[in-house]
Design brief:
The chain is of the alpha/beta class. The protein contains 9 helices and 13 strands. The structure holds NADP nicotinamide-adenine-dinucleotide phosphate (NAP).
Length: about 280
C-alpha cells in the first residue's frame, strides 16, 4: 500500500512535501511531475489505496462559486474517494476577517470574502464527516521548492523591472510561511496523527516587510517605498499564531525565516543545505 498520496503533489507545497516524504505518490492536474499520476478533483477518479491523503490543492477555490449544498456534495464525494484514508487538508487564513490579528486554532472563523466563506465551510464539512482528519491553515507560502520560487517572488526575480511598479502596504499583515518549514510541519503532524485544526505559520509581518525580507537575500534591496492600503476590502490582519505548532510539532515560528536561505540555490544567493527541495 502507498504510504501517502499528495493530491496537488506537482504544486509548490506539494513538491516540498514530496521531497520530504519518502515513498509518497504525487498527483498532478495539468503539469505532471516525476512519477505523478493524474487526478482532477472536479471529475473525481480513483486514488491509490493509502493510509494518508494530503490535500495540497485549491479545494476551496475550486468550490468558491458553488452553492453551499453543492460544496457539501463535492466534499462528501472527495471523502468517499479516499476509501478510509486519513485526510490532511490545506486551508487558509482567508477564513479570518482580518479585523483582529494573531488568530489561534480556537478562534472562530469570521470570513468576509467568497473564498474565505467557501474555505470555512469546506473545513467544517471535512472535520464533521471525517473526525480523524487534520485541517492545516497557513498563509502566504513562499520560498524555493520543486526547482522554483513561489508565485509571488518568481515573477519579480524573472523580470526585475516589475519591482518599480509594486505597491506594497505597510499596514496589512499576514504570517508568511516558508514552504519547506510548512512541509516539515505537515510531515511531523502526519507522523503524530494530529487531528482537528492546526496553524502552521510564520511570524506576523506587513506585506511590505515580507517583500523586503524575501527579496534582500536575492540581491534586491532598492525597493519602492511602502504605501498605506486604501482598499477597504483588503483584510487588514489575518496573521495566525499556534501554541499547538510549538507544543506538538516542536516548531517555532521564529525559525521560519532561517529555513528560507537553506533551500535557495546558490545562484540566487542561497547557501543550500538540502538539495532535495
Ligand atoms: N500559496 C499560498 O500562499 C497559500 C496560502 C494559504 C493556503 N494555501 C493552500 O495551499 C495549497 C497549496 O498551495 P501551492 O502554492 O502549493 O499551490 P500550487 O503551486 O498552485 O499547486 C496547486 C496544486 O493543485 C493541483 N490542482 C489544481 N487544480 C486541481 C484540480 N482540479 N484537482 C486536483 N488537483 C488540482 C495543481 O496541479 P497542476 O499544477 O498539475 O495543474 C498543483 O499540483 C493551496 O491550494 C491552498 O489550499 C496556499
Amino acid at each position: 500500500m502507498t504510504p501517502i498520496v499528495i493530491v496537488g503533489g506537482s504544486g509548490h507545497l506539494g513538491s516540498a512535501l514530496h521531497a520530504r516524504l519518502p515513498g509518497a505518490v504525487a498527483t498532478h492536474h495539468r503539469c505532471p511531475s516525476a512519477g505523478s499520476i493524474a487526478f482532477d478533483f472536479r471529475t473525481g477518479g480513483q486514488l491509490p489505496e493509502t493510509r494518508t491523503v494530503i490535500g495540497a490543492f485549491p479545494l476551496a477555490r475550486l468550490l468558491q462559486d458553488s452553492s453551499p449544498a453543492e460544496r457539501a456534495e463535492s466534499v462528501a464525494r472527495y471523502i468517499a474517494s479516499l476509501r478510509g484514508a486519513r485526510l490532511v487538508q490545506l486551508s487558509t487564513d482567508a477564513v479570518f476577517s482580518g479585523r483582529q490579528g494573531g488568530r489561534a486554532e480556537a478562534d472562530a472563523p469570521d470570513p468576509l470574502t467568497p473564498y474565505g466563506r467557501a474555505q470555512a465551510q469546506v473545513d467544517e464539512l471535512i472535520l464533521a464527516s471525517a473526525p480523524d482528519s487534520l485541517i492545516v491553515r497557513t498563509s502566504f507560502i513562499f520560498g524555493w521548492a520543486g526547482g522554483r520560487l513561489d508565485k509571488r517572488l518568481a515573477p519579480l526575480v524573472e523580470e526585475p523591472e516589475r519591482l518599480s511598479h509594486q505597491v506594497w502596504p505597510h499596514d496589512v499583515y499576514r504570517s508568511p510561511t516558508e514552504v519547506n518549514f510548512l512541509a516539515e510541519g505537515i510531515a511531523r503532524a502526519v507522523e503524530q496523527r494530529l487531528a482537528g485544526l492546526l496553524h502552521v505559520a510564520g511570524p506576523r509581518m506587513s506585506i511590505a516587510e515580507f517583500f523586503a525580507s524575501a527579496l534582500a537575500p536575492l540581491g534586491f534591496t532598492q525597493l519602492p517605498a511602502p504605501k498605506s492600503e486604501e482598499n477597504p476590502a483588503v483584510a487588514r490582519d489575518t496573521s495566525m499564531v499556534s501554541t499547538r505548532m510549538h507544543g506538538a510539532l516542536g516548531l517555532d515560528d521564529t525559525e521560519n525565516w532561517s529555513w528560507y536561505p537553506r533551500f535557495l540555490p546558490a545562484a540566487l544567493g542561497g547557501s543550500p543545505t538540502d538539495a532535495s527541495a
